[in-house]
């Protein structure tokens, strides 16, 4: 829970987990930020005994949509062929600085990881 921002990083509702606002390595390259976001997601999933293999859907937000190939490279390396469905968006982040990537996800608890 983040009281300042009035939101939870992960909520479990039945067999589903909803994960939001995964971002990390804000001063790094786009690849470092994507890896950092997935690190953040992994840590939150671990709180409820899940892994990236349980992720079934992602919304990926980019400062520059042309960075999708970098994300795809990272996904291939980190998800080991168990790819979630996803949608990618280009957005103007509230932080006009170095935030290039953020991801939200839905995980399903009964997938064999």
At a glance:
The chain is of the alpha+beta class.
Amount of beta strand: 25-35%
Low-pLDDT sequence parts: none
Question: Distance between the terminal alpha carbons, to the nearest Å?
Answer: 26 Å
Mean pLDDT: 92
Helix content, binned percent: 25-40%
Multimer state: single chain
Which strands sit side by side, in order, in the main sheet?
A: 1-2-5-3-4
Number of H/I helices: 2
* Element-level helix/strand string: EEHEHEE
- What form results from the Cα inertia axes? globular
Determine Rg (CA atoms, Å): 14 Å
Counting helices, strands and paired strands, the structural category is alpha+beta
Give a quick account of the main beta sheet: strands, pairing sense, barrel closure.
5 strands, mixed
Number of strands: 5
What's the structural blueprint in terms of helices and strands?
Blueprint: E1 10-13, E2 16-22, H1 30-46, E3 55-62, H2 68-79, E4 85-90, E5 101-108
Parallel strand pairs: 3-4
Antiparallel strand pairs: 1-2, 2-5, 3-5
Describe it.
The structure is a single chain. The protein is α+β, with helices and mostly antiparallel strands and 113 residues long. It has two helices and five strands, in the order E-E-H-E-H-E-E. Helix 1 runs parallel beside helix 2. 24% of the residues are buried.
Brief descriptors of the model:
26% helix; 113 residues; 29% strand; 2 helices; single chain; alpha+beta; 5-stranded mixed beta sheet; globular
């Amino acid at each position: 829970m983040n009281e300042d921002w009035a939101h939870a990083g992960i909520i479990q509702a039945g067999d589903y987990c909803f994960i939001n606002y995964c971002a990390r390595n804000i001063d790094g390259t786009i690849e470092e930020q994507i890896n950092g976001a997935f690190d953040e997601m992994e840590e939150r999933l671990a709180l409820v005994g899940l892994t990236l293999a349980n992720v079934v859907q992602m919304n990926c937000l980019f400062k520059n949509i042309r960075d999708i190939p970098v994300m795809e490279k990272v996904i291939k390396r980190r998800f080991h062929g168990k790819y979630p469905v996803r949608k990618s968006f280009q957005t103007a982040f509230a932080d006009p600085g170095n935030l290039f990537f953020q991801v939200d996800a839905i995980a399903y608890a009964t997938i064999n990881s």
